[in-house]
Amino acid sequence: MSRSVAPIWVAAYYQPGSEKVVDTTGAGNTFLGGFTVGQSETGDLMEAAQYGSVAASFLAEQVGPPALGKEGSVEAGEMWNGHNPQNRLE
Fold it and tell me: Which single residue of 4, 11, 14, 88 could bond 54 by disulfide (Cβ 3.0 to 4.6 Å)?
């Protein structure tokens, strides 16, 4: 990335005024964590930004950290607040 490349806006997962947003405390840190994982896994900055946006969306849904767990089978994968994060990336 350099200053010769124009910036690109990546929209938040939830739009302003969404009823799903409860608390945004820590959303920036959560975005950076998701971004770092996305960059490590994909090597693509835009896709990494989407990872960050999705990660922050889970945090904003409640006060405190997302509830983690597994639902059903191994194929369902890791669940955050009852949702599979990979589904939000699609």
Answer: 88
